[in-house]
Protein backbone atom coordinates (compact mmCIF):
# COMPACT_ATOMS: atom_id res chain seq x y z
CA UNK A 1 0.00 0.00 0.00
CA UNK A 2 1.58 3.26 -1.12
CA UNK A 3 1.13 6.52 0.66
CA UNK A 4 -0.06 9.40 -1.39
CA UNK A 5 2.31 12.29 -1.98
CA UNK A 6 0.26 14.56 0.28
CA UNK A 7 0.33 12.08 3.16
CA UNK A 8 4.08 11.70 2.77
CA UNK A 9 4.60 15.46 2.73
CA UNK A 10 2.37 15.95 5.77
CA UNK A 11 4.21 13.27 7.74
CA UNK A 12 7.63 14.72 6.84
CA UNK A 13 6.44 18.20 7.75
CA UNK A 14 5.11 16.88 11.07
CA UNK A 15 8.41 15.19 11.90
CA UNK A 16 10.33 18.37 11.05
CA UNK A 17 8.06 20.43 13.30
CA UNK A 18 8.50 17.96 16.18
CA UNK A 19 12.26 18.07 15.75
CA UNK A 20 12.40 21.87 15.87
CA UNK A 21 9.99 22.08 18.80
CA UNK A 22 12.05 19.64 20.85
CA UNK A 23 15.21 21.65 20.18
CA UNK A 24 13.45 24.90 20.99
CA UNK A 25 12.23 23.73 24.39
CA UNK A 26 15.40 21.88 25.39
CA UNK A 27 17.12 22.92 28.57
CA UNK A 28 20.02 25.28 27.95
CA UNK A 29 20.69 26.61 31.46
CA UNK A 30 21.69 24.46 34.37
CA UNK A 31 19.27 24.36 37.29
CA UNK A 32 20.50 25.65 40.62
CA UNK A 33 20.43 23.53 43.74
CA UNK A 34 17.76 24.47 46.26
CA UNK A 35 19.19 26.35 49.23
CA UNK A 36 16.39 25.77 51.70
CA UNK A 37 15.49 22.48 53.36
CA UNK A 38 11.93 21.20 53.73
CA UNK A 39 12.54 19.64 57.11
CA UNK A 40 11.48 16.13 56.12
CA UNK A 41 14.64 14.07 55.96
CA UNK A 42 13.44 11.68 53.24
CA UNK A 43 12.46 14.59 50.98
CA UNK A 44 15.70 16.46 51.65
CA UNK A 45 17.74 13.32 50.90
CA UNK A 46 15.79 12.71 47.69
CA UNK A 47 16.36 16.30 46.50
CA UNK A 48 20.06 16.13 47.36
CA UNK A 49 20.55 12.82 45.53
CA UNK A 50 18.51 14.03 42.56
CA UNK A 51 20.62 17.17 42.15
CA UNK A 52 23.83 15.15 42.53
CA UNK A 53 22.74 12.92 39.65
CA UNK A 54 21.49 15.93 37.67
CA UNK A 55 24.88 17.66 37.91
CA UNK A 56 26.70 14.52 36.77
CA UNK A 57 24.39 13.98 33.81
CA UNK A 58 24.52 17.69 32.87
CA UNK A 59 28.32 17.63 33.01
CA UNK A 60 28.58 14.55 30.81
CA UNK A 61 26.02 15.97 28.41
CA UNK A 62 28.35 18.95 27.99
CA UNK A 63 31.18 16.51 27.29
CA UNK A 64 29.08 14.87 24.60
CA UNK A 65 28.18 18.25 23.09
CA UNK A 66 31.88 19.19 22.93
CA UNK A 67 32.77 15.75 21.45
CA UNK A 68 35.08 14.94 24.37
CA UNK A 69 35.65 11.31 25.27
CA UNK A 70 34.27 9.92 28.51
CA UNK A 71 36.35 7.89 30.91
CA UNK A 72 35.21 4.50 32.18
CA UNK A 73 34.32 5.86 35.61
CA UNK A 74 32.19 8.55 33.98
CA UNK A 75 30.29 5.94 32.00
CA UNK A 76 29.78 3.92 35.20
CA UNK A 77 28.26 6.98 36.86
CA UNK A 78 25.83 7.42 33.97
CA UNK A 79 24.82 3.75 34.15
CA UNK A 80 24.29 4.13 37.90
CA UNK A 81 22.16 7.24 37.32
CA UNK A 82 20.02 5.40 34.77
CA UNK A 83 19.58 2.47 37.17
CA UNK A 84 18.55 4.83 39.97
CA UNK A 85 15.96 6.48 37.74
CA UNK A 86 14.54 3.09 36.79
CA UNK A 87 14.33 2.04 40.45
CA UNK A 88 12.55 5.28 41.35
CA UNK A 89 10.06 4.78 38.51
CA UNK A 90 9.45 1.18 39.60
CA UNK A 91 8.71 2.22 43.18
CA UNK A 92 6.08 4.72 42.00
CA UNK A 93 3.95 1.93 40.54
Instruction: Assess the beta-strand content as a share of residues.
Output: under 5%
Give the SSE string.
Answer: HHH
Name the poorly predicted regions.
none
Cα distance, first to last residue?
Answer: 41 Å
Strand element count: 0
Helix share, percent: over 70%
Overall outline: elongated
Radius of gyration: 20 Å
What kind of sheet is the major sheet? none
Structural class: mainly alpha
The number of distinct helices, counting runs of at least 4 residues, comes to: 3
- Give average pLDDT, whole number: 76
Structural write-up:
With 93 residues, the chain is mostly helical. The chain has a domain at 30-92. The chain is built from three helices and no strands. The chain is elongated.
Features:
93 residues, mainly alpha, 3 helices, elongated
Layout of helices and strands:
Layout: H1 5-24, H2 41-65, H3 72-92
Helix pairs in contact: 2-3
At a glance:
With 93 residues, this protein is mainly alpha-helical. Helix content is 71%, strand content 0%. It has 3 helices and no strands.
Amino acid sequence: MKLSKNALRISLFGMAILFFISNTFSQTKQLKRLKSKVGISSVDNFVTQSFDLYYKVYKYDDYAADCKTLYDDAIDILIQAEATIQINEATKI
